[in-house]
Amino acid sequence: MKKIVLLAVICLGALSCSQTEPKEEQEEKFLVVATTAMLGDAMEEMLDTTVEVVTLLGPGIDPHVYNPTKKVLDHLAEADIVVSHGLHFEGRMQDIFEKMSRKKTVIFLGNALPESKLIEPEDAGGFYDPHIWSDVELWKEALVASIPQLEKSGHYNKEGAEEYLKKVEDLHAYAASQVQSIPQKNRILLTAHDAFSYFAKAYGLEVVALQGISTVAEYGIKDVEKMVDLIVERDIKAVFSESSISPRSMEAVMSGVEQQGREVKLGGILYADAPGEKGSGAETYLTMVKHNVDEIVAALK
Known about the structure:
The chain is an alpha/beta fold and 301 residues long. It folds into 2 domains: 30-157, 3-Layer(aba) Sandwich (Rossmann fold), CATH 3.40.50.1980; 176-300, Rossmann fold. It is built from 10 helices and 8 strands. The protein has helices spanning 2-18, 37-46, 70-78, 94-100, 136-152, 158-179, 197-203, 221-234, 248-259, 285-300, and strands at residues 30-36, 51-57, 81-84, 105-108, 188-193, 206-211, 238-242, 265-270. The strands form 3 sheets. A 4-stranded parallel β-sheet has the order 2-1-3-4, with helices on both faces. Mean pLDDT is 88; it is low at 1-25.
């Protein structure tokens, strides 16, 4: 009997010795949730490597009409900082962000800009145009305005931020110089929805769109006819579709021009509200803006 007890004790001791000591739980990273890839790009560069950046809306998703899923709401609840465009760009999520801002840091990037630099379209119901990133210099100003809130988090990466902002500055210079190569009479940009007013204002173009600043607004036959007449009257060379909007609207315009015995080409797909898929050459804020500039210049020059 004693032998059996002794054997049991030895076996239990051996078993306990062979068990791996429990590992210490890894410390959770500081979580920053950015609504779009444009914001996510910037946060990845402007914050240190101890931060996890989660982007909510991927390529091709229209933020104006997006309905948040449970997964998105969970990310927002777990976030230490939420970074949004503001100016009602995220549409249906705006109220959620405003409520969350009472309990955690929510950065409304566009709201930090002086009203004198914002565009207020006549048909926008008193709202400002939120597409500030198409003016690269204005986008840089908005990012710089967010720095004090990022510094308070204790995770601001000064060197990384300066390098990134320098790239943004260089992109602004590139856009300005490239657009200047378009003959003055050709500097008119016809698009599906009004997402390029800041771009046009910054770089010296005229812009005409079928829809308003939000894709929620619908276009009609009269809008198409009006654009067709403009193209024929001014002998405009190209129109542009957008990655997050059906191309049918601009196809209707092109068809209308053809019916009048004229021709207008599709100048290319522009990335207005979201960057492109992997392999598109427009996956980040910097590359999407360069892509847009190159497409516009190539079609109108």
